[in-house]
Design brief:
Number of strands: 20
Number of helices: 19
Helix content: 40-55%
Number of domains: 4
Strand order of the largest sheet: 2-1-3-4-5
CATH architecture of the largest domain: 3-Layer(aba) Sandwich
CATH class of the largest domain: Alpha Beta
Radius of gyration: 30 Å
Structural class: alpha/beta
Strand content: 5-15%
Largest sheet: 5 strands, parallel
């Protein structure tokens, strides 16, 4: 098995009035690494669910004189809405299995018990449960202060960055903020300003890539009247306007090479000379610079002055990409949903478990900016109180799960049929077995999907295909028939 320890070793409650079967299932699951508890009645199962909080329940349908397995499922979900139920049914009893799913069960398994398949179902159920719990926790934090310095994140890379910002609160040192596009470098700059003694002074930002080279010098240093055409009056530059505060030179890697000597002199001398003037003006300003480019490489290629590079890179602060921030992506997504709901009044409260799984799995090359774009799109398209997989951009829905091949290897080429089957199974997994949604994502009719399921032998509920038992794995076959009775 390739599942991680954090998913395995879940707490499983077994509800079965057949003593032998109950013990057999418990021993088989314990051999696979699960923690088990068991009971023969639904009434006692409700007590155990309330008291001991199992993470998943496996139940038979017929449980003696008390309530049956389906009623147990309905009542237990009132106590613990995210508790996955797996119902044991007689082999081939599809009508009963469908009734169990409609009653709220997560999945079903046929008797005799196939432990390979049961292990797969339990692993998925535990992942599903923990994603739902995490999404619910994010919703409960609605309106709470989940950020530091106005930024949101609990991951180790973000904690290290917050610590560095805190350590720089009493420093006026020039900081180079580096990171990929869309990671929030300007937010980091504002945090450095607001945590500093200069917080009461102005914060001035200029995007060096957005200002044409002929105008950049005037924007930064100012100009006197008549310095150039249309200079009808004198104007202070941004370095002067930032006096007593902080200036951010964003996209510093795009700063024109011909103007770099004047910027270097201004930073060294703390004085600026407006365009067309013969006098210099003293400035008192903290300088921050930001870039998504490799300035060292630009220095080697003589595209950026080495002396200016060392002047702005007194301290380098790297902003982590979103893909390195783990579950921060869910926290950020929920925060964005909360803001959109407050602004637009639409009753979308969060992400479905399947959508959350897609968001966690995606690599986010555009970082936080791409996430905001995706959530805004999904929020607009959502029809219910949750953003579902169908609302996400196609590129996110089709991202393969970790540790799974994205293309056939030369040693084991796939046929077209094998590739099509794999794609259908991936889609079913992504939508938790909802065939209507799977058909929509695949771009085919529901009837065509059923024909393909029959053609490829995918006989499942929840997108799980039957796994051939591994050699040596125990199976349980009771005497008589294998019906629910």
């Amino acid at each position: 098995m390739s599942d991680t320890p954090s998913i395995r070793h879940g707490r499983v409650l077994i509800v079965e009035d057949d003593f032998d079967l109950r013990g057999f299932v418990a021993r088989g699951l314990e051999a696979l690494g699960y923690q088990t508890m068991s009971t023969e009645t639904a009434d006692e199962a409700l007590v155990l669910i309330a008291r001991d909080a199992p993470e998943v329940v496996i139940t038979d349908l017929r449980l003696g004189p008390s309530i049956d397995g389906l009623e147990l499922c309905k009542r237990a979900l009132e106590l613990s809405p995210h508790l996955p139920f797996i119902v044991m049914t007689g082999y081939g009893n599809m009508e009963t299995a469908i009734g169990a799913i409609r009653a709220g069960a997560y999945d079903f398994i046929n008797k005799p018990i196939d432990f390979v398949k049961l292990d797969l179902i339990l692993t998925r159920a535990l992942k599903h449960r923990r994603l739902l719990d995490e999404v619910s926790l994010l919703r409960e934090q609605d309106g709470a202060d989940r950020g530091t310095f106005g930024m949101i994140g609990e991951s180790p890379p973000m904690r290290r960055m917050f610590d560095m910002i805190h350590r720089l609160r009493e420093s006026d040192a020039t900081v180079l903020i580096s990171g990929e596009s869309g990671t929030g470098k300007e937010l980091v700059a504002r945090a450095l300003h607001s945590s500093n003694a200069r917080a009461s002074g102005p914060f001035v930002a200029i995007n060096c890539a957005a200002v044409p080279a002929p105008l950049l010098e005037s924007e930064l240093f100012g100009h006197v009247r008549g310095a150039f055409t249309d200079a009808r009056r004198a104007r202070d530059g941004l370095l002067t306007r930032a006096n007593g505060g902080t200036i951010l030179l964003d996209e510093i890697g795009e700063f024109p090479l011909e103007v770099q000597p004047k910027l270097l002199r201004a930073l060294q001398e703390r004085r600026v000379r407006p365009v067309g003037s013969n006098r210099e003006i003293p400035i008192d300003v903290r300088v921050l610079a930001a870039t998504n480019r490799d300035l060292e490489s630009m220095v080697e290629q003589q595209l950026f002055r080495e002396d200016l590079y060392y002047r702005i890179n007194v301290i380098e602060l790297r902003v982590p990409p979103l893909r390195a921030r783990g579950r921060d992506v869910l926290t950020l997504a929920q925060h964005m949903i909360d803001e959109m709901r407050a602004r637009e009044g639409k009753a979308v409260r969060g992400l479905s478990a399947a959508a959350a799984a897609c968001i966690v799995r995606y690599s986010w090359p555009g970082n936080v900016r791409e996430l905001e774009n995706a959530i805004e799109r999904a929020f607009a398209l959502a029809r219910y109180d949750e953003i579902d997989v169908m609302n996400l951009p196609t590129r996110m829905r089709t991202t393969p799960k970790a540790n799974e091949p994205t293309s056939p290897t030369p040693a084991e080429p796939w046929s077209l049929d094998a590739a099509e089957r794999r794609h259908i199974e991936e889609t079913l997994y992504m939508v938790a077995g909802n065939k209507t949604r799977a058909a929509e994502l695949l771009g085919i009719s529901r009837r065509a999907l059923y024909r393909k399921l029959e053609r490829f032998g995918i006989k499942t509920v929840g997108g799980l295909h039957v796994v051939t038992p591994a050699r040596g794995v125990p199976t349980y076959k009771p005497s008589g028939d294998a019906s629910d009775a």
